[in-house]
Design a protein that fits this description.
Blueprint lengths: L7 E4 L5 H12 L3 E6 L2 H12 L6 E5 L5 H15 L4 E4 L14 H29 L2 E6 L15 H21 L4 E8 L5 H9 L1 H10 L9 H12 L10 E4 L7
Parallel strand pairs: 1-2, 1-4, 2-3, 4-5, 5-6, 6-7
Helix pairs in contact: 1-8, 3-4, 4-5, 6-7
């Protein structure tokens, strides 16, 4: 028995990294998964690999999460293919490397469309489907940047602001949707290990030492599967009494 048997999930930003890990974990736990991204072919590649190991129920779709009509299309195709929606994972994200004195209006607007407006549009679009079943789950993949600054936000003012807004939106939605039996929670990852980050750590001992200092719990940087496990918990019935929560997965960064 899988932890998501019989569930149907929409996962945005599903073509790589954490989003791809969430798709893999969800289908292995029994969910039918609709994965979306601006580059639909990346999602399709993830799903093609998964089909080599099992007859999973999956659908790859193109989506710009900052556009309402794209959300309407995704939800419509999900209902057409799988008959319902149980879970929404807002994972798509955009970041710029510009601080408070150098970010442009265009950068701020674009980051907020992807990181913040998308949460509103997603919830507005899936809620009528949740209401048909008298239940639903939303998991917003946020960031430590929504809680603290410094190393956690990488010096990006638009990213930090958008994730702070996403954190507040999660609590707002959790409160106002509780009466509809819709749970809304957020996951706040610290750094996530990627091949590029691993290369930087291997080549720069001083950076590796700083990571160990500020993230005291080994392995000091989470893998995407560690974050995906947190998303799975909040998406599953195991967290049936949890809403408005912030699940921090950061190898101890916030205890410093």
């Amino acid at each position: 028995m899988g932890r998501l048997d019989g569930k149907v999930a929409i996962v945005t930003g599903a073509g790589q990294g954490l989003g791809a890990s969430i798709v893999r974990l969800f289908v292995r736990e029994g969910a039918a998964v609709v994965g979306t991204a601006r580059r639909e072919q990346n999602v399709q590649s993830v799903m093609d690999e998964l089909r080599k190991e099992g007859d999973y129920k999956m659908l790859a779709l193109h989506q710009d999460v900052g556009v309402r009509s794209d959300w309407e299309k995704v939800v419509s195709e999900t209902i057409k293919t799988f008959g319902k929606v149980d879970i929404l994972v807002n994972n798509a994200a955009q970041v710029t490397q510009t601080d408070i004195l150098h970010c442009t209006e265009e950068e701020v607007i674009n980051v907020f469309k992807t990181n913040t407006l998308s949460i509103i549009l997603g919830i507005q679009t899936v809620t009528p489907e949740f209401e048909k079943q008298n239940k639903g789950v939303v998991v917003n993949v946020n960031s430590l940047a929504g809680i603290v600054s410094g190393d956690a936000d990488g010096g990006s003012a638009p990213y930090s602001a958008s994730k702070g807004a996403g954190r507040s939106l999660t609590k707002h939605a959790a409160y106002y949707l509780a009466a509809k039996n819709i749970r809304v929670n957020s996951v706040h990852p610290g750094p996530i290990m990627t091949p590029m980050l691993q290369k930087s750590l291997d080549e720069s001992p001083e950076i590796a030492a700083r990571v160990k200092q500020y993230n005291p719990l080994a392995p000091h940087i989470s893998g995407p599967e560690d974050i995906a496990n947190g998303v799975l918990y909040l998406a599953s019935d195991e967290s049936a009494c949890v809403t408005g929560a912030e699940l921090v997965i950061d190898c101890g960064h916030l205890v410093m």
